[in-house]
Each structure stands twice: as C-alpha cells, then as structure tokens.
Amino acid sequence: MPNRPINVLYIDDDATLGRLVQRMLARHNYLVEHVEAAEAGLSRAQAGGIDVIILDHDLGTASGLDVLAELSTHATPPAVIYVTASSELSIAVTALKAGAMDYVVKTVGEDFEVLLRAALEHAVVKARLTRAREQAEQDVRAARDRAVMLLAEVNHRVANSLALVGSLVRMQANSVEDPGAKAALAETQARITAIGNLHRSLYTSDDVRAVDLAGYLRSLLEEFAQSLAASGQMPAIRFEAVPVLAKTDKAISIGLIATELVTNALKYAYPNGQGEVRVSLSCKGETVTLKVVDDGIGWTGTGTIRGTGLGSKIVRAMAKSLATELEYEDTGGRGTHAMMNLSLSEITGAH
To answer: Rounded CA gap, 189 and 183, in Å?
Structure first.
C-alpha cells in the first residue's frame, strides 16, 4: 500500500454502519467519507479525489445498480466494491457486469472487515496498475505524435532543399551552350524532382510510411508537362491510374523509373516534337502494372541504346530493387510500349 492514505467513499443509507466502517478502516490507513444518498455519492465521486467507492446495494429509495450505471458514464470512474446483504449470487454477477471491480457480502463480525479490506487492497492495486497503463499509453501516443510531426518537418525541409538543388541545376542548364550538357542537366533535374516530389507527398500525408503512388506520379508528370510547355516542346503527357499505396522507398524507385521512361519517350519517340506519351498505373489481383506508351518511331528494347545509357542503367537498378524487370511489348514498329509488372506485396511491404 502507498504511504499516503487511501481515499474511500462509502455510499450506504445506514448511518450506524457508516460510522463503524469509518473507524474500522481508519486503523489501516484509509480515509473514509460516508454519504447516505445516491445523489450525494455521485456528486462526491464527480468532484474527484476518490480512490475506491464502497457501494451498498440497498440505498432505500435507490439501488446501488443505478449508481453503478451513472458512474459508468464518467470519464475515469473510481474502482467500485459492491456490498450487499443478500447472498444471492445473481446480484453480485449483475453488479460485476455493470462495472463493479469486486463484491463483498455484508455479514456480522470480523469476516466482513477481513473481506472488505482484502477487496479494498485488490481494488487499489488494480486501479494503480490501470492508471499506470493508461499513462504509459498516453505517453506512447504523445511520443508517436511528436515523431510523426518531426518526420513531416524533416520531409518538408528535404523537399525544399531538393527543390532548391533542382533550381540550381536548371539555372546551370540555362547557362551552358552545349546541347549535350544542357540535356544531361535537364535529366538530372528531372531525377531530383522525382525524389523531391516524394518527400513533398510524405509531409502532406497522414501516414509517412506509405505514399499514394497515383498521386505521386501525377504530380511528377504534371511538373514534366509544365517544363515542356516552358521549353516549347509539343509532346503531351497523359496519365491514368488507380489508387495504390506503396512504401516510401519503393515509391522512389517507381518514380525514377517513370521519370526515365517518360524522358526517353520525349527525347526519342517524336523527332518532329509532336505526339503523345501515355502513362498508366493499373492493378489486377496481386499485380500492379506501370506502362509508358508512345506512338513514335518505335523501339523494342533491343539494339543500340541512344544517349549515354545512364537512364537504362538507372531503370535496371531500380527494377532490380523492386524484384522485377522492364519489358517491351511487340508493336510491329508502331511506337514503344514499355511495361513493368510489380508485386503488390513487394511494393506495399505486406506479406
């Protein structure tokens, strides 16, 4: 038992027994307040500071069960020990179902004192453990909320930093004259944007462990479209997707793959600068399919790679991290259809 006295509220319409219980429990470090009416007991319990309530079944004009029902509506009601003069087990069972922690049959002699003290000690220990558990759960929730807030702030700052880096790369691209260097810097900026957009999605998400893949790819492709419009290029980008949640690291890989495939389509599919690139994300059963399709000059994934080949290396590396491979559909030379099948459990982390 703790050193401080235990505050007990005894609700019983028998004034004589009330005084007897007060004297009896005072010898064992209990401070007992006695009230005779149900309304007075409920009012005192609502005021707080009570560790345990001893509640008599027969309160004259009311029943202890009525008091139990009212106490159950309180946010944190004290532990209740139900006392009844009846030996009928049905009353005790009803009281326990209504929220009482224990019950004691009212008898004459020392047995009642022994049983009541035992019930009080049990109630105090259990109540203390319950409060400790609730406090621990509250602390864990507070720590989790703080961690989520801090992680969102980190993602916010990372997204801003990557946006700044992307802007610096774009300024560098605008300042060089060599077409090859300008194109390489533009591709680098697109890759930075792919990662930055993911962090932007994370700090606006309710769950930083996963990201909406459809929304993430949509924002990525919208930036592509804006950059195309600013540069005067004509190919259009169309996007269709179903909602799919993906782990953050998997989403980065998928975003980089989409970036490389769309970049290649824009660079090589339409020599005259006019056409359309269609990107789709679909899900059937346990398979998520990413497609990047154009109606340009056509490439099946074989033959000499144009450019430096860095984009192809990035795609292969990202595909390997997703436990898949990039495939090209046979179109008979009419455009390029790049496709990647992804395991839903692989990208969501659900096994």
So the answer is: 10
Bridge partners, 328 (sequence order): 338
Helix (H) or strand (E) run with residue 104 in it: strand 102-105
Q: Where in the chain is the domain with CATH 3.30.565.10?
A: 211-351
Of the two residues 336 and 200, the one the predictor is more confident about is 336
Characterise 99 by phi-psi region: left (phi > 0), alpha (psi -120 to 50), beta (else): left
What is the arithmetic mean of pLDDT over 41-49? 90
Residue pair 226/294 in contact by the 8 Å Cβ criterion: no
Instruction: Give yes or no for a contact between 328 and 337, defined as CB atoms under 8 angstroms apart.
Output: yes
Whole-Å CA distances, 198 to 63, 74, 104: 62, 45, 62
- For domain 211-351, is the CATH number 3.40.630.30? no
What is the spatial distance between Cα 105 and Cα 211, in angstroms, rounded to a whole number?
Answer: 59
The answer to whether 74 and 45 have CB atoms below 8 angstroms apart is yes
For residues 258-267, give the mean pLDDT.
Answer: 84
Provide the angle, in degrees to the nearest 10, between the axes of the packed helices 179-203 and 110-175: 160
6-106 is classed in which CATH architecture? 3-Layer(aba) Sandwich (3.40)
Domain with CATH 3.40.50.2300 in the chain: 6-106
